[in-house]
Amino acid sequence: MTRQVLCSNPSCRQALSYPEEIAGQNAQCPRCGTVTPLPPPGASDSSSAARLGHYSLVRKLGEGSMGQVFEAVQDGLNRRVALKVLAPRFAGDPLYLKRFQREAQTAAALNHRHIIAAYEIGVDQGRYFFSMEYVDGETLKARLGRQSRVPPHEALRYLVQSARGLAHAWEHQVIHRDIKPANLMVTWDDTLKIADLGLAKFIARMTESTPTDIIIGTPYYMSPEQARNEDVDIRTDIYSLGATFYHLLTGEVPFKGRSPFETIVKVTTEPFTPILTLNPQVPKTFAAAVEKMMARQPSERFQDPKTLLQELDRVRAEWPSRVSASGQAADARVDTTGVPPIAAPAAPAASGPSPGRRAKSHPWRQRAVERKILEKRTALIAIGLLAAFFLLVVLVSAARGLESAEIPALAERSHFPSPPR
Predict the structure, then answer these.
(1) Does residue 237 have an active-site annotation?
(2) Of 69, 90, 136, 223, which sees the most CB atoms within 10 A?
(3) Do 120 and 144 share a domain, yes or no?
(4) What's the confidence (pLDDT) of residue 363?
């Protein structure tokens, strides 16, 4: 019997296959060389809990209202995936089962660098699941938990990437309907990916499967028309994206009530506090673009992601010179020459940091950069000490040679002639 375990090195996490006979011993990862302890014999005898279909469950990543998400390894391909498992209490409910299947099908229909990819859907022993791309990073919600605000130049970069993902979805007539910080993930190399298409809809199917008496979405980031349970289109995602980045830039949600109902009332009736009032450091053109995304009337917002991307390009072009001169916002530029961003083919997902990227702000990335700098400094110091040692050896040898040459001369000068008698 063959088992699997992930390398204990967090930056590697290579899946290691090993025979049952060596369970409880140590194994060395062939990729990074880290020694990883193997689970003891019998630790996974309850394999139904540790496996689902042809996936080996590694650890639980999170839990939501509809089920759980696990990190898993796909047999055969040895591929790390995120496995979303529908809660058993919903498995027999046709409405929840249909929504769960629709999420997988919607994600599978979209193939874009800034949208988490779906791989397959399945059922094992009555447990429904679907596998999707594993993202090694954090959500923007977690980012806000570490710091109250996101610097404007980083927010601009994330907003551009989000808009590109929404543009691809809109090309396929898909709207997300639940854009929020918890559904925007950033990888270790600073690539943003849109997650959780559980509320996403194909426009053509909306009237078929959405009950007219249910309000869906997250109140803090919900558009007014979505809060009123009206028909929605891509402009509701643009509003929610604007509300999300309002939160990132100011550290506060645009509307907050003592209950979800009170929040919804404020969304539909009250104005939000201007961004510059809460954070004067945000460039005016950027603040104006985000506030336009959050216009109460859909007709007053950007009408599609393409026009939003074009406006963000103008924002970047007018970015204050004190920021752009440092290169911090250089990679936020939107390429609007030639093929518009909305029609541009999806770039292949990068397997590592892109050439020319600056050091990222994630803690694990900062530690890696600091470690490399320390290693370089240590190497330079060692080289300097070695050079100094060799120079000292040369000087000592030269001094000894000079000393040995002067001794005979001094000896000759020491034999003075005898004075005359």
Answers:
(1) no
(2) 223
(3) no
(4) 56
